[in-house]
Write a structure and sequence with these properties.
The complex is a heterodimer of chains A (114) and B (111). With 114 residues, chain A is mainly β. Helix content of chain A is 0%, strand content 46%. Chain A is built from no helices and ten strands. In chain A, 36% of the residues are buried. Chain B is globular. Chain B is built from no helices and eleven strands. In chain B, strands 2, 4, 5, 9, 10 and 11 form a six-stranded mixed β-sheet that branches. In chain B, strands 1-3-8-7-6 form a five-stranded antiparallel β-sheet, with no helix packed on it. The chains are: A mainly beta (114), B mainly beta (111).
């Protein structure tokens, strides 16, 4: 079956603009995660969705970042008033159920803020 | 915040040699996972070892876990040029849903 997909693959934007990043998880996976990876670094957790429960937003770096998950499937990560330090690869992952199990990652969106 | 720390940060070996990467962590965990990343894009899950396990094998991969030392190692035997990638350990911390990733080891296998 299809894996996790993300769009766009690459995004170049100007400082101050808003961007939306999309994630389509594997069908049937109830848990969805967003991570951020800066150049040469490990992954930084941003936000976690599990079914219809309130999301865990503890990793969002500022109030310019928000995410939603519609119908328990597709998720959109929005960054408002982008800054140069937001430049990174944004990775989405899903798993069958929330908890400490294997996560399946999408190919990521590479964001460059000029 | 990053919990796991991989060692070494970079490793270059010849094809056919074994590669060993180490990971240390700080908190109580449910399991520890190893992922591979090619060209800075999506991560591929390699192996998961639970906190009550000490060793696990999968093909050419061997993972050990020492919860008393809060450390794990990943051994890739008979390496191939195609193994060239970055390898990350990730801990599933007790009481936390998201994985905590280390900073990774960049492995270069010379043909």
């Amino acid at each position: 079956g299809a894996g996790v997909s993300q769009s766009p693959s690459n995004k170049v934007t100007e400082k101050g603009k808003d961007v939306e990043l999309r994630c389509d998880p594997i069908s049937g996976h109830t848990a969805l995660y967003w991570y951020r990876q800066s150049l040469g670094q490990g992954l930084e957790f941003l936000i976690y969705f599990q079914g219809n429960s309130a999301p865990d937003k503890s990793g969002l770096p500022s109030d310019r970042f928000s995410a939603e998950r519609t119908g328990g499937s597709v998720s959109t990560l929005t960054i408002q008033r982008t800054q140069q330090e937001d430049s990174a690869v944004y990775l989405c992952a899903s798993s069958k159920a929330g908890g400490p199990e294997t996560q399946y990652f999408g190919p990521g969106t590479r964001l460059l803020v000029l | 915040s990053q919990q796991g720390e991989e060692d070494p940060q970079a490793l270059s070996i010849q094809e056919g040699e074994n590669a060993t990467m180490n990971c240390s962590y700080k908190t109580s965990i449910n399991n520890l996972q190893w992922y591979r990343q090619n060209s800075g894009r999506g991560l591929v899950h390699l192996i998961l070892i639970r906190s009550n396990e000490r060793e696990k094998h999968s093909g050419r991969l061997r993972v050990t876990l020492d919860t008393s030392k809060k450390s794990s190692s990943l051994l890739i035997t008979a390496s191939r040029a195609a193994d060239t990638a970055s390898y990350f350990c990730a801990t599933a911390d007790t009481g936390r849903r998201a994985l905590t990733f280390g900073s990774g080891t960049r492995l270069q296998v010379q043909p």
